[in-house]
Design brief:
Blueprint (H helix, E strand, L loop, with lengths): L3 H11 L6 H12 L12 H11 L10 H13 L3 H4 L10 H10 L4 H7 L6 E5 L1 H4 L2 H13 L4 E3 L11 E4 L16 E3 L6 H6 L6 E5 L5 H9 L3 E6 L2 H13 L5 E5 L14 E7 L14 H4 L2 H19 L2 E11 L8 H10 L3 E10 L8 E8 L3
Parallel strand pairs: 5-6, 5-8, 6-7, 8-9
Antiparallel strand pairs: 1-3, 1-4, 2-3, 9-11, 10-11
Helix pairs in contact: 1-2, 2-4, 3-4, 6-7
Length: about 375
Amino acid sequence: MRRGYWVHEILNQYVQKTPPGLTLYLLWAAISLVPEKDREPMYPMHTLVNEAVNATHLDAKLGFAKGLINAVLRRVLRNEHLYQEISEEKNPSYPEWWIRKLRYAYPEQYAKIIASSKEKPPLTLRLNERQLGGDASKQPYIKQLQEAGLSIQAVAPVSNQALPNALELINPVPVHQIPGFFDGVCSVQDAGAQLAAYLLNPSKGSRVLDACAAPGGKSAQLLEQFDIQLDALEIDPARATRIEENFTRLKLSGGQVLVGDAANPQGWFKGEAYDFILADVPCSASGIVRRHPDIPYLRQEADIQALQITQRKILTALWGLLKPGGRLLYVTCSVFPDEGESQAKWWLNAMPNAVRLGAPGQLLPNQHHDGFFYALFEKAKD
């Protein structure tokens, strides 16, 4: 899907009439496996053609397509000028409105943002401080990772914030191959996401709300690093169960999971205000496209405005649950300013008792972390 628009353009030029369902999908899948420009193929190209043709035998409805698939793939692979004639740079896998918004917001960086979405995302671990303790205590576990054949490296500070519990696997592997994962020694969490706990920095014994908490990575990190009373709120009961499962795996206490709507606290809020609130609100997820390449295909431009409205409703509702002097961290995994800086400015205008504190603002995706937006606010005391 990361090359979907490029594949679509090839099919437009190499196939006169759009083939029916399964044939189109098979061609789409095969062409997407053609190596990118200046990259080595994963396997010989004749194997790609043979296996695509052989796949037609798996369904009687594909019998007629054998010749078409063979011919189209061989024509594509014979074309020495394919990447000049149909450039991936000119056919990125984003709708026009998406590219327009990126170009407007980041005229000097939008090409890098698009390019980053085609790269494999990093796999970053967060070591469980409750189980492993300080730096010296982590060394035996790091040695265990190395003995399991895993190459690791420390994660550089993100926006000048050190991440002492973060380790990046140079060659990602499934979690069942990571020693201690199912025993709660570590979790998988992007380095950019790990900033949240450090920015919120709740004081000992404080009441903390993680709104929109599923799957629970940020809630778990807060419980690992701070002695707090935490409510993890999630609107979806099935996803709320995942939070509980994560707490159990990590052997964490001090947190309870609530099912409810962050925009409508009447159904779950019991009246005791919070000292700190983490508002990781629903968003376009435009900062994590490389992990979810279907996102640009699922989003419509009108969705951004609808998400803005939802984000503002949640912020307004949560602000009423925060104690004077308390802090709220607004978070999105978006790169669109409509969901980031524009919302932060709106909030300052809408709430005269909101004071903006230091936070990174917009983080653009790079080789070490995804794209996020962070804004920290304090509620002025009466």
